[in-house]
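Fold it.
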Amino acid sequence: MNLLPLLDELRTIARNGLTYAQNEYDRQRYERLLELTSQEYADYLDLPAGLVKERLQAELGYITPKVGADAAIFDEEGRILLHLRADDQRWCLPCGWLEPNESPQEAVVRETWEETGLRVRPVELVGVFTRRADPGGGLFSMVAVCFLCEMTGGELTLSHEGLDLRYWPLDEVPLWHGNHAVYAQAAHTLWQKRMRQSGHS
C-alpha cells in the first residue's frame, strides 16, 4: 500500500492548521498531527523524526504543491535531449523548481542553461501535469509545466547535477525519472504536429 499520498495530505492539513488555527486547543491537535506525520515519514525515509519535523515546518504560509518547469528539446531527427540525473541515475528532461517571483518560462530557460549549457526559447506549452506522491515519483505532490523549446545558442555542457547528456529516441530510453516519459511523449506529439505544419515530413 502506498502511504505517501496520505502522508502528503496529512502534512498539508497539519501545516495549514498551524498557520491558521485560532485557539491553543486546535494548535495542539495540529502539532500532534504533524508529529505523527513526521514519525511516519522518518520511518519511511530512515531519518530522525526531529529532523523530518524541522524540514516540514520550514515552509511558510499556506502549503501548496511545488511547481517545476520542464524543457522538451528535439533534434532534427525527433530525438529528445535528456539529462541523466546524479541523484537517482534516471533520465529526465532539463527541469527544475520555480524560484520566487519567477515565471515558468523564465525557470525553464534558466534551468536548461544551468543543466545543459544551452540557451533556449520556449515556443509552445506542452501541458501542465500533476504528479501525486508516490515511491517511484516523489515524496510530495507537484505540478510540472512543460514547454517545447528551441535552441538559440550555447554549447552542450554537463553540469554537476548530471552524469550524462544525450539525445534519445523516445522508445530507447532505458529508465525514466518520475513522470518524464509522459511529458516527453506529449512533447513529441506536439513537435510532430509543428513539423507537419511547417512542411517537414
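The two ends are 47 Å apart (CA to CA).
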